[in-house]
Amino acid sequence: MFKFKNAIVRRPGRSLVGGITSANLGKPDYELALQQHGKYIDALKRCGVEVTILEADERYPDSVFVEDTAVLTEKCAVITYPGAASRQGEEVSIKEALTKFYTTIECIEAPGTLDGGDVMMVGEHFYVGLSERTNEEGARQFAEILDKYGYTVSNVFMEKFLHLKSGLAYLENNNLLVAGEFINHPEFEKFNRIIIDESESYAGNCIWVNDVVLVPLRYPKTKIAIEQAGYKVIEVDVSEFRKLDGGLSCLSLRF
Ligand code: CIR
């Protein structure tokens, strides 16, 4: 079975309260966010991964969402160029942290932009969402890089979600969690789809970590559906990160 050995996270800084949002849920409570982040780390450890914890970077309010700064494969790391201007620069220290784990590091360059949240890995294939953050040039560079390592890439046109993985989570074994605009998307018909109820759309952002699925707390229908598909579930409260449009996948890089 394919397994993740490592995860990288970054502690939220106090500047988190000024992060980008479209959620209309108010500002995150920093202390609570810190607590929730600690429990998120504990949950990752319970799934058997070694967690590298980077210190907060106050210069970047959204830097807790490390997923957007890199795409990690078994053969190479790709450092992204984030699509939001206020996030450009977050990737520099992630690249440094990754030199401990990777000898082959590639980079997306401007004018290409790509957020890791727009990339979903399914074995040796990578889906890239063309979103407000990931442009065609970023997707083109990404495909060119991955081609060198024998991986394939396809683009997904999307309209509503912030990121591809805001509404999709691959749970291995051909099981795919689908929400909102992805429920009837032709690109994903070949998967065994687990459909997220409209009332729980946010829970489309779950993560599979070594046969355990982390699910956001307070999404009971989703939790049951995933358990019925045969997975062990750990619920994690990420209410403060939701206020910034972030979720479980955004808070770590898993590899
Ligand atoms: C942003 O707008 O960039 C952050 N407030 C949220 C990023 C969430 N990341 C993700 O979905 N991968």
Overall description:
This protein has 255 residues and is α/β, with parallel strands linked by helices. It has one domain: L-arginine/glycine Amidinotransferase, Chain A. Helix content is 20%, strand content 24%. It is built from five helices and 15 strands. It has helices spanning 30-46, 90-98, 136-148, 220-228, 239-242; strands spanning 6-10, 50-54, 70-72, 77-79, 105-107, 119-122, 125-130, 152-157, 168-170, 175-178, 192-195, 207-209, 212-216, 232-236, 253-254. The strands form five sheets. A three-stranded mixed sheet has the order 2-1-15, covered by helices on one side. Helix 1 links the parallel strand 1 (6-10) and strand 2. It is globular. The protein starts with 5 loop residues before the first strand and ends with a strand. The mean pLDDT is 98. The chain binds citrulline. Citrulline is lined by residues 19-21, 62, 65, 67-68, 84, 87, 117, 162-163, 166, 244-246, 249-250.
